[in-house]
Amino acid sequence: MASSADISDEQLVIAVRERDKELYSEIIQRYQTKLSHYLRKFIRDHDELEDVLQEVFIKAYRNLYGFDVHRKFSSWIYRIAHNEALNHIKKYKKESISLDEQEWEVIDESMDIHAKVEEDELKKDIAKALAFLKDTYRQPLILYFFEQRTYEEISDILHIPRNTVGTLILRGKKMLKKILEHKGI
User: Fold this and answer.
1) pLDDT at 28 over 90
2) How far apart are alpha carbons 182 and 185 in whole angstroms?
3) Contact present, 41 and 98 (Cβ < 8 Å)
4) pTM score, two decimals?
């Protein structure tokens, strides 16, 4: 058998169910950073984020037998993370978005510092503008542009038709542009 790193998420789920519960740690390893990055868009406090992330993995493990291995696992676990983030926000009535955290990169001599500063400023402006959008538009935009999810995956995560995803992203981009222009962000 191939090593656990060489098999698909869906095959890994089958292995966890049928042979080795300890392989679930591979799922955690594969998704911890990705889901943490996604949840950071909703939850600012690091400790709260870690609690929600842990709850996501617990819930996913408990419901692993309910997962349809003919579907995409990543969409399924992102949906759990999305729901847990929304539940956390509702429970604690916290501000629902946090895209303004600085992500540091190593700077080398070939980097155009002025372009990098302008890019960082644009990211901050977009993050501020996203906060003005309704969740209906903000969530698909975050998943598409920040998490690089496909329309099909977004459809699965948000439980909306695929065509609706495209419409929401298109409308959200137009609204975002207007906000950036009119708010002076």
Assistant:
1) yes
2) 8
3) yes
4) 0.65
Report yes or no: 4 and 27 within 8 Å, Cβ to Cβ.
no
CA Rg, the chain, in Å? Answer: 18
Query: Percent of the chain at pLDDT above 90?
Result: 54
CA dist., res. 99 & res. 122, Å (int): 12
If you ran DSSP here, which 8-state letter would residue 138 be given?
A: H
138 φ, ψ (degrees, to nearest 5): -65, -45
Which domains are seen in the chain, by residue range? 1-98 (1.10.1740.10), 107-185 (1.10.10.10)
113 pLDDT above the threshold of 60? no
Residue 116 CB contacts under 8 Å (≥ 6 apart), including other chains: 107
Give the separation between CA 44 and CA 124, rounded to whole angstroms: 15
- In angstroms, how far is the first alpha carbon of the chain from the final one? 54
Assigned token pair, 81: 């993370």
How confident is the model at residue 75, as a pLDDT? Answer: 93
The share of the chain scoring above pLDDT 70, in percent, equals 81
pLDDT tier, 131 (very low <50, low <70, confident <90, very high otherwise) = confident
The answer to whether the beta carbons of residues 56 and 43 sit under 8 Å apart is no
